């Protein structure tokens, strides 16, 4: 078989096949590199069957009930789904369709986007998470696109999905702004100035995640346990399911069922730090699927890399509490995250006081 003669890295990256190529070989067994330790396998997840993350209708952002629901969900769950958010359904469908179209490209075309060959660090196709530091690999391929400007995106992003992604990001702007205003009000920040916009949402990244059908899903993971380093993340998922979030009890896991037209929002570490722990960034993971391919598209809304993040003074004054986190340059925080395998919420320890 092909992958026995050539080393896995050559097959995945140099030849451009990715994990999708492994999946298409109809292997009976999982390559040993993907076998996770017992503790990380799905069979060890305690699932809370009845629970569900909040689903919030945001058709009116000015409604006090929306503000309360969003801020409450950000504190208790760190995860919620929003419906009636105003991003047209056809825009969401276009993004999903073009994500599938990108991963359906021939390996020799996709090969050009792997970070070893990509013309820019802002456009990179990868498999797993950080293969060079992982003891066990994750069963996924993903294209990561760092947004600088429309012009750069038009020049560098894959033409097959570029226009749809830019349209989607553009349509999400109103949602991002409204969500930030609501979340900030919950932290006693009533007017967001230019400086703060840059701190909260000065950079964005969009990932196209592809989780191919897996021969032995019980032995591996789609994505390991982690929390995001963003301010918050907006996730568009297809109808397959497989995303699990840590329940408020800190032990169980809760499935995030796909809801047509909904966007899943989760608080990231940056906002947990800025809110001095009032809003929670929550561990989440994706299980592999034995019968179907799954895609998801997270849009990460991040602080500008050159900004220093720390507990907001408004939060400390309002609640008269001491800072729980040190101030840190956001680019240093993300650098630390990308140096290690997914390890739950390990990155936050880097800034805890």
From TrEMBL:
Where would I find the Fe2OG dioxygenase domain in this sequence? 202-303
- PROSITE patterns found in the cross-reference section: FE2OG_OXY
Q: Per UniProt, which keywords does this protein have?
A: Dioxygenase, Iron, Metal-binding, Oxidoreductase
The family database entries (InterPro entries) matched by this protein are listed as: DIOX_N (IPR026992), IPNS-like_FE2OG_OXY (IPR044861), IPNS-like_sf (IPR027443), Oxoglu/Fe-dep_dioxygenase_dom (IPR005123)
Q: Does the keyword DNA-binding apply?
A: no
Database matches in Gene3D superfamilies: B-lactam Antibiotic, Isopenicillin N Synthase, Chain
Which biological process annotations from GO are given for this protein?
coumarin biosynthetic process
MF term (GO), any: metal ion binding
The pathway it acts in is: Phenylpropanoid metabolism
- Which cofactors does the annotated protein need, by name? L-ascorbate
Q: Which Pfam families match?
A: 2OG-FeII_Oxy (PF03171), DIOX_N (PF14226)
Q: Which reaction does it catalyse?
A: (E)-feruloyl-CoA + 2-oxoglutarate + O2 = (E)-6-hydroxyferuloyl-CoA + succinate + CO2; (E)-4-coumaroyl-CoA + 2-oxoglutarate + O2 = (E)-2,4-dihydroxycinnamoyl-CoA + succinate + CO2
PANTHER family in alphabetical order: FERULOYL COA ORTHO-HYDROXYLASE 1-RELATED, OXIDOREDUCTASE, 2OG-FE II OXYGENASE FAMILY PROTEIN
Hey, which family's this protein in? Belongs to the iron/ascorbate-dependent oxidoreductase family.
- The name under which this protein is listed is Fe2OG dioxygenase domain-containing protein
Q: Which organism is it from?
A: Chenopodium quinoa
């Amino acid at each position: 078989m092909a992958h026995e003669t050539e080393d896995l890295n050559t097959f995945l990256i140099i030849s451009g096949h990715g994990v999708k190529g492994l999946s298409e070989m109809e292997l009976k067994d999982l390559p040993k590199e993907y076998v996770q330790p017992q503790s990380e396998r799905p069979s060890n997840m305690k699932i809370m069957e009845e629970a569900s993350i909040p689903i919030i209708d945001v058709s009116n952002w000015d409604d006090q009930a929306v503000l309360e629901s969003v801020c409450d969900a950000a504190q208790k769950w760190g995860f919620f789904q929003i419906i009636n958010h105003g991003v047209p359904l056809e825009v969401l469908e276009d993004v999903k369709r073009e994500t599938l179209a990108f991963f359906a490209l021939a390996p020799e075309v996709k090969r050009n986007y792997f970070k070893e060959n990509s013309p820019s660090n802002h456009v990179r196709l990868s498999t797993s998470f950080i293969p060079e530091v992982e003891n066990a690999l994750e069963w996924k391929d993903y294209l990561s696109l760092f947004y600088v400007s429309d012009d750069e995106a038009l020049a560098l992003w894959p033409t097959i999905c570029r226009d749809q992604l830019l349209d989607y990001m553009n349509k999400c702007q109103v949602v991002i702004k409204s969500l930030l205003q609501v979340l900030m009000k919950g932290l006693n920040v009533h007017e967001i100035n230019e400086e703060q916009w840059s701190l909260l949402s000065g950079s964005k990244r969009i990932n196209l995640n592809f989780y191919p059908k897996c021969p032995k899903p019980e032995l591996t993971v789609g994505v390991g346990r982690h929390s995001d380093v963003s301010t918050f993340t907006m996730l568009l998922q297809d109808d397959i399911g497989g995303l699990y979030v840590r329940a408020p009890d800190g032990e169980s896991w809760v499935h995030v069922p796909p809801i047509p037209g909904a966007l899943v929002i989760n608080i990231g570490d940056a906002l947990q730090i800025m809110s001095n722990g009032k809003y929670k960034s929550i561990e989440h993971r994706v299980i592999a699927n034995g019968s179907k391919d799954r895609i998801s598209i997270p849009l990460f809304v991040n602080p500008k890399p050159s900004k220093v993040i720390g507990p907001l003074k408004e939060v400390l004054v309002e609640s008269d509490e001491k800072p729980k986190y040190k101030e840190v340059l956001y680019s240093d925080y993300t650098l630390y995250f990308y140096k290690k395998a997914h390890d739950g919420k390990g990155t936050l320890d880097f800034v805890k006081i």
